[in-house]
Amino acid sequence: MEGLAVPFPHLLPLPPFPKLATVTAVAAISTSTSTSTGGGGGGFISLKQQQLQLRPRRGSPPYCTASSSSSSHSQSEEEERVSGDSIRERFLNFYASRGHKVLPSASLVPDDPTVLLTIAGMLQFKPIFLGNVPRQVPRATTSQRCIRTNDVNNVGNTSRHHTFFEMLGNFSFGDYFKKQAIQWAWDLSTVEFGLPPQRLWISVYQDDDESFQLWSQQVGVPVERIKRLGEDDNFWTSGVTGPCGPCSEIYYDFHPERGYIDADLGDDTRFIEFYNLVFMQYNKKDDGSLEPLKQMNIDTGLGLERLARILQKVPNNYETDLILPIIEKASQLANVSYGISDDQTKRYLKIVGDHMRAIVFLISDGVVPSNVGRGYVVRRLIRRVVRTGRLLGIKGDGRGDLEGAFLPTIAEKVVELSTHIDADVKNRAPRILEELKREEFRFVQTLERGEKLLDEKLADAISSAERNGSVPCLAGEDVFILYDTYGFPMEITKEVAEERGVCIDMNGFDIEMEKQRRQSQAAHNTVKLAIGSGTNIADNVPDTEFIGYESLYCKAIVASLVVNGDPAVQVSEGSNVEVLLNKTPFYAESGGQIGDHGFLYISEGENQPKAVVEIIDVQKSFGNIFVHKGRVQKGVVEVGKQVEATVDVKLRQRAKVHHTATHLLQAALKKVIGQETSQAGSLVAFDRLRFDFNFHRPLLDSELAEIEVLINGWIENAILLQTKVMPLADAKRAGAIAMFGEKYGEEVRVVEVPGVSMELCGGTHVSNTSEIRGFKVISEQGIASGVRRIEAVAGEAFIEYVNARDSYLKQLCSTLKRRVCGGRSKFDPCKTHSWGGQRAFSCDLSTGAEISPIAGPQDLVILCGATGVPKVKPEEVTARIENLLEELRVARNENSAVRAKAAVYKASVIANRAFLVGNSKQYRNRWRKARVLPVLYFSFADTTSTSWVKGDIPILAGKVLLQT
């Protein structure tokens, strides 16, 4: 039981916690918890509060005074015992002493396609709860980092809402159940942490009589303090589907003097729920039905920030030692004092304190700011903090640079506090700080562009409302312009408007977004099926039966014809047409894969087609109607006629090869740069593939090489693919990768390359990886902030690429070789040669790098060393020449613009880096014998002359004319 094996390699024992304070035996804490039900006064004020001049507010809730076995403890010792780090340690030790394995927190990026982020401690154990994998231990306890953004707008407005929080939990996998879980939760609360029993209230699910009796009879809680609540409050689910069950919660009462009558556990001015016990006994299916799990499980969650608030006797979670130091840092940057600030300033500081924790831990766990999925979550939080900082008046980084970024400065404090939460954060700090700096600068530019326009629009809305006596409202069109033209986030617009008392016409905004979507579709030639009268053809055409997985040929009936958006009964030769069939072997564009090409034939005799339609694209429209776009090459096509639908076999094979290669590429990326990377888009074409993914930096050459090696290795291994159709829930449980934002039906198709990849995919694929033949990355580049793009070729396209590249290289070398000697059969490196009035020079190696001054601005020499010549693999020669020529072309263009210095320097760097392309033994021997250097010759039409300096030869950008 020392460590857990696959499939949970991350479930390893935690390192020993640093000893914060002596944690005595459970009996050391007195169970005598008699406390006044009056003002509850007493209670110390922490040192941090004293520094910030905090005082208990009038009418603030009476905080509990936990009993102590000894009155000799100093205040500092007591503070240490109730610090956030100590509470975490005491919780884990409590359950470790009761047979629970202490396990580390899982990543905030869950290995679960049904949820975006880790929202609860049970998520890493979900496969065990479902019975999909055997348990490794019967009991476990964790402190889990969690992210929830559904209440982001409540952050800072309430005392308890957060985006980032720690969930302390104890778990049973078919071991103990309700009786033991309830007793231990009570003992932990009243004995270990010394909470007064008379201040604790209990909630149970309305139909859970067993839990009610255990609380009242076994534990002894008065029935007046046990509340039965409905499904919304006391039935817990982990997501839309998955493990679930009734739950029971423990609440702390800040105002017991209000009595039992009409007590509302939802009143957060009196109560706070801090411990939730979930009796995990059902699995919620896609249709909402519940099925019993194979075993009864326990899943609990205790909010660390909430318990810290109770024990530290502060008015809200933000003023605990878990968050207050971050607020202090923001206060320093804003030059304000939290303790004496107004409510609005305190709210802003709380937002910064909360969001910065979430941001730092998300980036640490590999989430890169982007515009999709979890990347958008962190980007939105970053932007909210940047704007909030501006409202606080923060300028600069606090170190004297008024133009510097302030997020990294605050993040450093979060990293400092993270030691006991996640020790790896400190090692990842440089990357986190750099990411924050980049995002802050980028968004500040966006804010500066949009804020002025937003202020004008809001002023107009307020002025117009005053004139009309109406409620001020910002037009949806204006919100859309800010979003679409200026990149101003809609959430920020909404937040600013609400602060000014202006509502937003969200319906108008949605209409504008829909208009843009339709225009975008039209721009990309999306098929239209609406006829002139407005009647939709789709109303009269059934869904198309697709048989293209099994066959590339079938006989079908023409269900409808469309020409220029209007229905047609027949279409003659030379016309463009959209054909709707009752069934088809043609794959319609979806999932990134383009539509099939091929032909529709109407036969007159056995071997003589009466009509031919060439199909150049296939699209899906209105659900599952396949629209075949093409041109009538011969004859006449009529509705109701039978056609022979034939897919172009060679092109389909190319698409299959590239689609499977795309799956392999995603698998390789996850292996090389991390599991946190995710797909942001793709294109599967006949001649190439394109894969967009979320990542924060360009890939290194070594990483691209490793990706190619992995993929070509899988191709060489000739792995048989497996394709299955199964319920969506089963596919997710099996670990199939699903794209966030994609909508799937109840039945899904799963494509698996065993041991490599498993994805939900409706595309066409090869049956064996060996069919791919070869894979080559053509380019890697950034296309948006946090989004990279790889283009590659595979199969026939891979062979064509290699052949074309080699042909180009041979042609280039042949051309350059002819120009080197000006038609001569031999090249004498000991002489000065002339071509068309231009001169090149050779150099005696015995004299070093000396060379005569050039005669004019159009002469240039690149020296290539005869010794230490790099050995270049044949397959690298073309790429190096291509890269050199491309860089020289760019440099030449720059030279035309700036005339001299910048391009001259750049070209010199390029030339020096490109000493020699190739490895010719014959020439190398000749150079050694002649004691000279070969030359590359460049020509310039507009450069400035310069002088040569021994050992330091400047190079001017120009066009390659010749090469030895």
From TrEMBL:
Q: Name one GO cellular component term.
A: mitochondrion
Q: Where in the cell is it found?
A: Mitochondrion; Cytoplasm
Binding residues annotated for Zn(2+), in chain numbering = H659, H663, C761, H765
Q: Which UniProt keywords apply?
A: Aminoacyl-tRNA synthetase, ATP-binding, Cytoplasm, Ligase, Metal-binding, Mitochondrion, Nucleotide-binding, Protein biosynthesis, RNA-binding, tRNA-binding, Zinc
Highest taxon in the source lineage: Eukaryota
Q: Where is the Alanyl-transfer RNA synthetases family profile domain?
A: 82-804
Q: Which EC class, in a word?
A: ligase
What's the Enzyme Commission number for this chain? 6.1.1.7
Pfam families, per this entry?
tRNA-synt_2c, tRNA_SAD
UniProt-recorded Gene Ontology molecular function terms: alanine-tRNA ligase activity; aminoacyl-tRNA deacylase activity; ATP binding; tRNA binding; zinc ion binding
> In the UniProt record, does the keyword tRNA processing occur?
no
Note the SUPFAM superfamilies from the entry. Class II aaRS and biotin synthetases, Putative anticodon-binding domain of alanyl-tRNA synthetase (AlaRS), ThrRS/AlaRS common domain, Translation proteins
Cofactor binding mode and count: Binds 1 zinc ion per subunit.
Q: According to its UniProt entry, what is the function of this protein?
A: Catalyzes the attachment of alanine to tRNA(Ala) in a two-step reaction: alanine is first activated by ATP to form Ala-AMP and then transferred to the acceptor end of tRNA(Ala). Also edits incorrectly charged tRNA(Ala) via its editing domain.
UniProt similarity note = Belongs to the class-II aminoacyl-tRNA synthetase family. Alax-L subfamily.
Protein name, UniProt field: Alanine--tRNA ligase
